[in-house]
Each structure stands twice: as C-alpha cells, then as structure tokens.
Amino acid sequence: MTGVEVDGVAVEVPEGAPLLAAVRAAGIELPALCQDDRLSPAGSCRTCLVRADGRIVAACVTPAAPGATVEAATDGLRALRRDAVEVIVSALPSRALTEDGRTELAHACRSVGIGPEVAAGAGGRGEDTSHPYVHLDRDLCIACGRCVRMCAEVQGTFALTLTGRGAETVVAPGTGGPWVESDCVACGGCVDTCPTGAISEPGPAPGLTTAVRPAPPMTRTTCGYCGVGCALDVVAEEDRIAAVLPARDGPVNRGHACVKGRFAHGYLTSPERLTQPLLRGEHGLEPVGWDEALAHIARGLRAAIRAGGPDAVAAISSARSTNEENYLVQKFMRVVIGTNNVDNCSRLCHSPSAAGLTASFGLPGGTDTFDDVERSDCLLVVGANPVEAHPVIGARLLRRVLRGARLVVADPRAVGLAPHADVHLRPRPGTNVALCHGLAHVLLTEGLVDDEFLRHRAAGLPELTGLLADYPPDRVADLTGVPAADLVAAARLYGRAERPAIVYGLGVTEHLHGTDGVRALANLAILRGAVGTGRGFGVNPLRGQNNVQGASDMGALPDVLPGYGKVTDPAVRARAEEVWGVPVPPRPGLRIPEMFAAARAGRLGALWVIGEDVCATDPDANRVARALDICPLVVCDELFLSETARHADVVLPVASWLEKDGTFVNFDRRFQRVRPAVAPPGRARTDFDTVRAVAEAMGTDLGCPTPADALAECARMSPHFAGLSHRRLDREGAVCWPCPDPDRPGQATLYRERFATADGRAHLAAVPHLPPGEQPDGDYPLVMVTGRRWAHYNSGSMTRRGGNLALDPVDHLDIHPDDAVRYGLRDGEPVQVISRYGRARLIARIGGETAPGQVFCSFHFPASGVNRVTSDHADTVTSCPEYKVTAVRLAADGAG
Ligand code: FES
C-alpha cells in the first residue's frame, strides 16, 4: 500500500493506484469524466485537477507516489475543475442537462455548481438509431473516449473510434456506416460507461448506466443465459424491466456483460408468453385452471405407476432452473414416484466432462477458477468458441492474450480467438483424442513433463507411454489433418509454459468418444504437472447453460444423489433416507435418450419435461417427437408454446430467471444468488412451486417450503455443500464448492494436497483414438458441426423474441467457398441439408470460417429443423449426443 496525504488526511491506496483513488479515499468527490475504473486512464478531460507536491495535475493519470502531499478541495482547484466542466458542457445542447438528469455529467455539474443554462450548444450532428440496443446522440458526445476504450480494452472488439477534429470530434463505428452494420456485438459496455447519455439504451430508462448517481433501486441477480455466471443489477419500474446493468463487483464479469444478459429480456413481456395452464382436449391445448391441470397430472402419474410401476415415470429437469428447483425435481421423483428416472440436459453437453474429470481427478467440475486461468502464460482453448458462446469469458481470454499470454486454439473452425492464436490447430471433427495424444507424445519425447509430479501424484504413466508410441506427429497428422509441425509447435508452447491452462467446450464432449476426449485432454495437464500444483491451471470446461453444473450438483441425474453420491451405494442412500425419511430406489434410472426409447417402446407412462425444448435441441428430433406422441402423459413446464410443448398433454406456464428466487452454479463451481426482479405474468408459477404443487396433488408434502429451505436440506445431504446457505450467499456474494464448512471459504482451486480419486492420484488415461460414429461417404460427403451464434441462445425461445432477432435474423449454414463452388451454391441462397436421419432448410453463407468439407450451423431456429438432421450416435460412456459430427449432403432448396 502507498501512504498519501490529501488535504491533511492520511490515506492508503494500493501500490500504483492513481491520485484519484487517494482523493476519493479521503472522502472528496472529483468529477472524472474521461475516467472509468475498468479502463486505462486517458487524462484528456482535465476535470479531475488537483495539486500534488505543488504541481497541478490530472488526478486520474498521476500515480500516487509514497508520501505525496495532495491538495484537492481548495477554492482555486474547485474553480479550475468547474471551468473544465463548463468548457465541456457549454458545447452541448440543452437536453444534455435536464433538472433531473441522472447521467454522470449531470451529477458532475451539480457537484461543481453548474446549472442547465450553461448547456447552450447548437447541436445538429444527428443521431444513429439503427441498432436495437445502442443509440448514439452525437450532440451529447464529449469525445472522452471511454466507449472506445471499453470496446477495445474490456470487450476486445475494437468496433468504435473517435472521428473528426477538435470540437467536432465524435464517436463512430470504425466501419463508418450505421451502428447496426458495424462490428459491435452489443455487449453494452459503451452504453454503460458513457458519462453523458450520448450512447444510451432505448427504452423506459434511457441513459441508465452503472455510472448513474444516485443509483436507482436494483435487484442483484445472476444471469440466466450461459454458464459464465455474470452478476447483474436489474432495475425495474412498475414491474417491468427498465434496464439490466452489469455489476461492477461481479466476481466473474467485473462490470461487463454480453448482448444476451444485458439486453435480451424483451421476451418477458412477449404476448406469446404462457400465462395459464393448458390441457389437451378435443380441440388441442386449451386453457384451464391450475387445479384442473394438477389433478390431470396426478391422475396420469398414478395411472402410469399402476400400469408399469414407478419406473414407468420419468422427468427431464432443467439446466435453466435454479439449484433449488432441480433439488426438488429429483426429490419428487425419488420420494413421491419412487424412481431414479431423472436426468438433465448436461446429458447433451457436458456429461462427458463430469465422467472424464471424475475419472481423471475425482470431482466432476473444472479444476481451477477462471481467476486462476487468467494468470496463465499459455492458454490451450479446445473445441470452444467463447467469443460467441461465452462472450464475457471470451473477452477476458482475449485480454489475457493481448497482454502477452501465448494462445493455442484447437478447433476445426476459425473461431473468434483463432486470429489471435500463436498456433491454430484445425483437427477434422471427431479426432480430438488423436490430437491430444499427438500433443502428449511430443511432451513425452521432448522431456516437457513433470517427472516428480508424475512419480508422486499421478498414476497410469506406463500404460499411457505405451499407447503414445502409436501417436507420433506424422501419424497424428494423417488421423487429424493437422500438420505435424503445428502439432509440435503447439505442444512446445504448452509444454514450455510456466503456468499453462486448458479451457474447453462442447467441441470436446459432444462426440461418440467425448469422455475419452476429456480424459485425453486431462492427460496433458497431468503430464505437465499443471493441475493441483499452482504450476498451471488445470482443465476447465466452459458450461453451456446457466445452471448445467448446478442441475447435476443437485442430483438431477439417474445414477447419483445430490453431491454425486452413487444411488447404488448403500451408505449414500442411507444418508438420503435419513433426511427424506423414505427409502431411495437403488437401481440407476433412465438417461434422456433411454427415456425416449422407453416411450417409443410403450414402457413409459408419463414424462415431465421441465424447461427444455427437447424437440428442438435433442438429436434426431423426429424420433423425439414420436416418443412424446406415444407417451400417454407428457407434462411440460415452459415460458412459450415450444416445439416440445406442442406435443405435450399438459403445459404449465412458468417463471423465467428474472422472476424467481434461488441459486445457480456457474462454470467454475460458484454458487450465486438468483433473485426475482419482477413478478411472473398471469398465473405463471416458478418451477419450484410447480413441483411442490404436483407433489401435493399426489398427496405428499415435499417439505422445503422455500428455496432457502431446499438448499439447506441439500446441504444436509452432501458434504460438498454443507457450508452453503442463502444467508451466507447473501452475505458473501459467491462461494465455490466443495464447501464443507459454513465458517471456511469454499475450495476455488482443487487438489492442492491430493486428488479426490480413491488413491488420491490423478489418473492418466490410455484410451485409443477411435473413429466417430458418422463418416462422410459418397452420398453424404460433408461433415456438419452445430454450435452457437453470438446473438442467440439454445433453441432461441428467449433471444428470438426481442431485439436480438434483428441482430441475427437468419439461420445460416456456413460453407467454405470451395464447397460452394462444388455444390453450385451462392451466398444468401436457400439450401437443404440432408442427412441419413432428416433434412433442414437454411440460408447459405459462404466464408472461410469453416474448413473445406465441413459446414456449420446453429440450432437456434427450431423451424429450420437442424436437429432433425443430427444422428442418435452418442458418447459410449455417458450417452451425450455426437452433435459435432453428422455426415450430410446439400441440395438447392426445393430439390431432393
Ligand atoms: Fe482525469 Fe479526465 S478524468 S483527465
């Protein structure tokens, strides 16, 4: 810390902090119109002038030197600052300073005694209202450059620039045209930092930013889109969302957000929102009251049990619901129905992570926090496109790279980080295991391994060494298509780094051998001793949905109870039975694909689908729909009449993440609170209330009257969560699991003393490369890969209802120019994608992002039918679908 004296008051600030921090620590407020704590200082507006050791300086750019003497509150300095603000304001039109103005500029003017009459500029520079979320009023721009720096330094998009000279200087998209056609990805950073309202969010509360003082009443919650876990402050006016602001003290997002969390809340008030239960009658789904819907469900569940026993009932819980809701769903199935037939959509994304990481290290989560990963000097990013799918993490990774970390990207596509990579490996889809073995081969043969770690903390080296003899770079080049020299270069970067870290995504898991892919990746960290040692930051999955980690943590899985104790283990069951007071069925239940198969075979009498649009997101969607149509009772909790809801017998209207209470667990095992900012519409209820109500209709009180009670009960069942409670999270904000003790911090970094395996060692896996389930051939010569686009989320039910649709309105099929020529396709042309399972209709987009022989599309537009094309091949260990490899052919739309 550095000691400084400000107007006679001794203060301490962190080393390297600017004088501005010292002045604020002394309780003196200064205008600082070009400064934002999230950004590098510019020192251009001169509104923060102070005298330090006799010299007039800008406090924002002058470091606080030890022992410095600072004057800040003298009349002379106040006058200087007032003059600086007045010069700026006098060039602005009068609307810049209304009496009740709540911008940072308005606040600064009030603090230095400048009234609205000073704003007397002519204006006339016009507006840019082309973008649905970001409006530019050029007349209010003071050219402070905060937006430009936010876009470059925090978001890493470099979409904005300052143009013009002198007083005419104004912010503009770097591409020159309308904002909506620029490179802007609508993270909202520019809106959030703008001190004047020149860049603002249109809507009920324009100009609302985290810089507004005093801040309006806000609800702190956790984002319900991807698994990053951004902390958000929600401003509601008259029970409608007025703005969603990124929390500056958010442990993961640190004052940043993305186009989804920040802006995509328009769906809440969509006229298509379900507001009352629907029951299938003579004329299809018809509105009914809750009592009638619940009675029908209870009758159907009893009939299913009578006909086929408890195992004739199954539930798909939701990675979008809270932990407490997931806890209650699995409790309902085990306690009320008497079956372990409960699963969640981690089956379709990261179940191989859970299986692979558990086998390698002992626990089913990432090994380190992202704060650790960010300290890495070499990032290996595999099968992930965080710039689009996890934008806040993508931005943090890019920042780290721009500050000097080396980067290896392994992905078939030229994903967002690839242009910044030292080496971009582009393996053919389905060859990850061979790629990892090739890297491991180089680590071993070049002595880039940690012998001591391998001797004392790892197992399986002889077996792996034997296997790796078959994976020299030349052979791996043949298997994967990655040049041997690139493979060697990547291995040397990872192998020679002091603190390497691995981050990966669904490009690793969604394969026929996805679990093997995770284990082969884990091998690299083990060989390097880069896990559990502080000499590297392990292996870290980027979770897709907001609470996919938590849904599994809570035991919404067919083989484990809350906290991952096996249902086959009598001691685990005994602990649950003590808490629940009823026997727990010992036989593992059905996985999601097995549920559909059982339904098609006539063995399933009832299926409850909670918040998952399985007809849109699950593979081989035609067969999924058939399963739902055959099952006698399908109940669906939904926000909208989704594809799945259309096949249901009862549809229950439910609350969204902005309307409910509970917790989520993010991708680095952080529990964070979720709080309702507005009430659900009409008669919609939370999933939590829905599960309790169905239990009651079945004659059982599930206990846990509140979400806090549910987490408390879960904490009694599992040592991993024993130290967690809503009260603690309200106090501390975020706590990582494992957290066995209420009085001690959660374990953010795992395995510093021992691994959680039976022998305490990390386990290398000698798993051979095996071919994918789908292979291109003469009839289906291309490989289709699916994934996410930046503006949308999953089946798109939330992001297609609002401004995001304007940002990305078309369901594209990305295709390489060589293939476009080969198949006679033009950019923008409708195209059919045909596989052995079905066909989809998309719009061709020609570009170099995909490799020749591959096409890429999202699954955000169910009407296109992409998941009618994907196969039912699945990971041999966990049944995770092989979404990343489907053999297809193309045909002009209308052809066969
Ligand atoms: Fe210090 Fe602008 S805030 S010069």
What does this structure look like?
By secondary structure, the chain is an alpha/beta fold. The protein folds into 5 domains: about 1-90, Ubiquitin-like (UB roll) (Roll); about 120-220 and about 230-265, Alpha-Beta Plaits, CATH 3.30.70; about 280-345 and about 590-735, 3-Layer(aba) Sandwich (Rossmann fold), CATH 3.40.50.740; about 350-355 and about 370-540, 3-Layer(aba) Sandwich (Dimethylsulfoxide Reductase, domain 2); about 780-890, Barwin-like endoglucanases (Beta Barrel), CATH 2.40.40.20. It contains 30 helices and 36 strands. It has a 7-stranded mixed beta sheet. A 6-stranded mixed beta barrel has the order 31-35-32-34-33-36. It is globular. The mean pLDDT is about 95. FE2/S2 (inorganic) cluster (FES) binds near residues 33, 47 and 48.
In short:
The protein has 896 residues and is α/β, with parallel strands linked by helices. Helix content is 30%, strand content 17%. Residues 32-35, 43-48, 58, 60 line the site of FE2/S2 (inorganic) cluster.
List keywords for this structure.
896 residues, alpha/beta, Ubiquitin-like (UB roll), Alpha-Beta Plaits, Rossmann fold, 5 domains, seven-stranded mixed β-sheet, six-stranded mixed beta barrel, 30 helices, binds FE2/S2 (inorganic) cluster
